[in-house]
């Protein structure tokens, strides 16, 4: 599921609303270790353009990560 989430996020990264929606969906379907891996990957790949979205979404899921 992690690779699937990465694929979807990459494909929707042109639209910030869609990106946030898909990121939230991904966080709901992944296990704890995968969440940590996704967080690391997202910040490496998207922090330059979606820093605020990443901070907001991952802060809401921080107890699980």
Provide an overview of this structure:
- It is a single chain.
- By secondary structure, this protein is mainly α.
- It is 82% helix and 0% strand.
- It has one domain.
- The chain is built from three helices and no strands.
- Helix 1 packs antiparallel against helix 2 (16-29) and helix 2 (16-29) crosses helix 3.
CA distance, first residue to last residue: 16 Å
Report the count of strand segments. Answer: 0
Q: Extract low-pLDDT stretches.
A: none
Provide the helix percentage. Answer: over 70%
**What does the overall shape look like?**
globular
* Helix/strand order, N-terminal first: HHH
- How does the helix and strand content classify structurally? mainly alpha
Number of helices: 3
Mean pLDDT score, rounded? 93
Task: Tell me about the largest β-sheet.
Answer: none
Number of domains: 1
Estimate what percentage of residues fall within beta strands: under 5%
Q: Rg to the nearest angstrom?
A: 10 Å
């Amino acid at each position: 599921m992690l690779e699937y989430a990465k694929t979807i996020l990459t494909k929707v990264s042109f639209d910030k609303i869609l990106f946030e929606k898909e990121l939230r969906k991904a966080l709901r379907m992944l296990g704890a270790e995968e969440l940590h891996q996704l967080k690391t990957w997202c910040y490496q790949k998207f922090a330059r353009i979606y820093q605020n979205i990443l901070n907001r979404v991952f802060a809401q899921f921080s107890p699980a990560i």
